[in-house]
């Protein structure tokens, strides 16, 4: 494959601060206006601000020995170039440099630069790489190739993924053996199946819930209830089994709004925490719930009060779930740190979770980098459960294919023996909620 030239937009570097090193042996071009935009984002405590600072440090390191006109080696055969559009090296005065750095937006400069490179040598493919859909549209209108940054996007087709078959027809003897022995060999002609996959096996007369592990079907024992939560369908039965299975230490639950993802997974966590020390159901010391602190709609501004008061509105759905799970006794447990702790993502870095049931709610609004940070905080005896709806992404810098929930599921399914995913496609909140989830 011949070498290509990629003109990188600010949006890509803010999304993935390691992007400079992910284009293999192809050359990367960055207009100085992009550097100026990075500088505008460097102050702040959000992930995007941290990413801007990381990129700036990486560029500073790469340019330690100077900015060479022949490019800076990136280590895999590709080179990094900076450019002042439409100016020869001898014309790059300080005045012109400062003029470009003052550009309010890098988008016009990006388009101009790509056009310049394309006209300079049309034998080498040139493309703009940007997360900004509008820039891609404008580039194509100008006959300039443009593409999204795909390095950290999940490869799976989410719509097909949600529609995948979970009901399988088998011979009656397989179901009989599962009820009698709890485990049975998978028929040689059964077809493709993934490690730790959950499925419903059925014959003409009966059915059984099962999961695939170590080349065999294992029967899932029916769970009547956990705390006050009774599974409403086989998807919720699958999720409870995965949350209670000590061999599965990483679980992903993907489902539309109102399918019970949070309530079921939280109930399973509390069930394994709240019993007395030494009880057979006690597996963890604490439940830690991590949620994004994004605001939807009109911004409310800074919230008054101490840390707990500031984060309380973001974790109100967890308190609601606690009341559903525990009933009137919930007020006795909310806020008692020996059982459950609500933690914003800002406080996760540097911590370690030992013997902890970590529940990441609304995981589709966390980035791959944030999910990696959470996952690498797991200590001995801990379990990570991530839940969310990949089609309801409210983080403006993510989409359905590069959010943390989707990427974790795509990267781990079928590869890690500790991982299982569950798809919940049946709403249980109310008929009205399902109408809005399906039709809007």
Brief digest:
This protein has 440 residues and is of the alpha/beta class.
Keywords, separated by commas or semicolons:
Rossmann fold, 6-stranded mixed sheet, 17 strands, 32% helix
**CATH class membership of the largest domain:** Alpha Beta
Helical stretch tally? 15
The CATH superfamily title of the largest domain: P-loop containing nucleotide triphosphate hydrolases
Structural class: alpha/beta
* Strands side by side in the biggest sheet: 3-4-2-1-5-6
Strand content: 15-25%
Number of domains: 2
Query: How would you sum up the global shape?
Result: elongated
Helix content: 25-40%
Radius of gyration: 26 Å
Q: Could you please say which CATH topology of the largest domain applies here?
A: Rossmann fold
**CATH architecture field of the largest domain:** 3-Layer(aba) Sandwich
Would you spell out the secondary-structure blueprint of this structure?
Blueprint: E1 5-8, H1 10-15, E2 27-31, H2 32-41, H3 47-62, E3 72-73, E4 79-83, H4 94-101, H5 107-120, E5 126-129, H6 133-141, E6 145-147, H7 158-162, E7 167-169, H8 172-181, E8 183-185, E9 198-202, E10 207-213, E11 216-219, H9 234-244, E12 250-255, H10 261-271, E13 286-291, H11 307-311, H12 316-326, E14 340-344, E15 356-360, H13 368-375, E16 383-388, H14 404-412, E17 419-424, H15 431-439
Parallel strand pairs: 1-2, 1-5, 2-4, 5-6, 7-9, 12-16, 12-17, 13-14, 13-15, 15-16
Antiparallel strand pairs: 3-4, 8-11, 9-10, 10-11
Helix pairs in contact: 2-3, 9-10, 10-12, 13-14
């Amino acid at each position: 494959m011949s070498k290509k030239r990629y003109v990188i937009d600010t949006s890509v570097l803010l999304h993935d601060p390691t992007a400079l090193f992910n284009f293999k042996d192809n050359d990367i071009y960055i207009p100085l206006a992009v550097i100026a935009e990075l500088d505008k984002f460097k102050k702040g405590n959000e992930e995007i601000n941290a990413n801007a600072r990381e990129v700036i440090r990486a560029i500073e390191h790469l340019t330690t020995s100077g900015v060479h006109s022949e490019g800076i080696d990136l280590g895999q055969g590709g080179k990094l170039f900076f450019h002042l559009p439409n100016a020869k090296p001898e014309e790059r005065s300080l005045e012109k440099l400062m003029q470009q750095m003052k550009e309010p937006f890098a988008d016009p400069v990006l388009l101009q630069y790509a056009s310049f490179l394309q006209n300079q040598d049309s034998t080498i493919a040139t493309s703009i790489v940007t997360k900004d859909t509008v820039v891609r549209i404008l580039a194509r209108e100008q006959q300039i190739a443009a593409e999204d940054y795909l390095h950290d996007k999940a490869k799976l087709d989410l719509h097909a993924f949600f529609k995948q078959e979970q009901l399988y027809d088998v011979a009656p003897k397989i179901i009989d053996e599962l009820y009698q022995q709890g485990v049975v060999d998978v028929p040689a002609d059964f077809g493709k199946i993934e490690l730790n996959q959950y499925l419903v096996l059925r014959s003409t007369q009966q059915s059984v819930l099962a999961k695939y592990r170590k080349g065999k079907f294992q029967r899932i024992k029916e769970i009547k209830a956990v705390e006050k939560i009774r599974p409403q369908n086989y998807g919720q039965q699958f999720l409870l089994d995965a949350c209670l299975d000590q061999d599965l230490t990483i679980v992903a639950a993907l489902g539309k709004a109102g399918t019970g993802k949070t309530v079921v997974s939280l109930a399973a966590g509390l069930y394994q925490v709240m019993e007395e020390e030494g009880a057979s159901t006690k597996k963890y010391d604490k439940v830690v719930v991590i949620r994004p602190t994004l605001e939807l709609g009109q911004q409310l501004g800074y919230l008054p009060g101490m840390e707990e008061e500031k984060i309380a509105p973001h974790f109100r759905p967890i308190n609601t779930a606690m009341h559903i799970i525990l009933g009137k006794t919930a007020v006795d447990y909310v806020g008692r740190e020996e059982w459950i702790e609500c933690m914003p993502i800002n406080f996760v870095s540097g911590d370690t979770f030992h013997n902890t049931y970590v529940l990441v709610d609304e995981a589709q609004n966390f980035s791959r980098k944030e999910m990696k940070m959470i996952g690498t905080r797991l200590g001995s005896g801990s379990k990570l459960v991530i839940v969310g709806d990949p089609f309801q992404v409210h983080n403006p810098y993510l989409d359905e294919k590069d959010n943390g929930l989707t990427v974790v599921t795509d990267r781990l399914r079928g590869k890690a023996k500790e991982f299982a995913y569950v798809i919940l496609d049946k709403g249980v909140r109310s008929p009205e909620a399902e109408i809005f989830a399906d039709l809007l």
